[in-house]
Amino acid sequence: MKYALPFLALLIAAAPANQNVPRPGTIRVQLNTSEGAIVVALDTRHAPATSKNFLAYVDDGRFDGTSFYRAARDKRDPQKGFVQGGIRTDARRILPPFPLEKTSQTGIKHLDATISMARGTTPSSAGGNFFITVGPTPGMDARPGYDGYAAFGRVVAGMDTVKKILAKPSGGGQDAMKGQMIFKPVTLINAKRLDGKPQPTKEPKMWLYNFGG
Fold first, then answer.
1. CA 156 to each of CA 81, 108, 151, 153: distance values in angstroms, whole numbers, following the listed order
2. Whole-model pTM?
3. Residue 70, SS3?
4. How many CA atoms lie within 13 A of 66 on its CB side?
5. What does the DSSP 8-state code read for residue 47?
6. For residue range 181-192, what is the model confidence (pLDDT) as tens digits?
């Protein structure tokens, strides 16, 4: 029996972390889609501004009823790439901009299953659109002369759902998105935080109003 207890302790130490228990410095969010659920853990310690922005969209319900609309597959390996979702160009849902947290500042690299903010040409243009990587995408990390994208967490459950979305038939689009727009976008039914108390903003929720009469 005296040998069994140390062996049991070793088994416990070697077991993977329970994804149902939040780790210190992280907040988990569940994205419920028409293809299944995805759970992401936001690194609030190393990417506080980006995580706060994402949680504001979650807590306000700004992601509810939007979609995953882009499947960017690697031409060399179509099973890798990234999927993009969020509010697209719906100005009624957008929140104020915030400073870019570079990967060189946060230390959060674009590895497999990383969640990061999509943005336009200016560094502080990230807002209500995000992407999830399938396989490492180091080209999105910051480097001298290139700001990169703000990675702020990773998928802890539901990568099978992400891969389903990546495999969706796509086409159309322009410039960087050419051939990558999902023909039948995957509905992002809702986004709910799993840890802590929601902290909705006081910004107007214009998309909830019908001005058409």
1. 18, 15, 15, 9
2. 0.89
3. strand
4. 26
5. S
6. 999 999 999 999
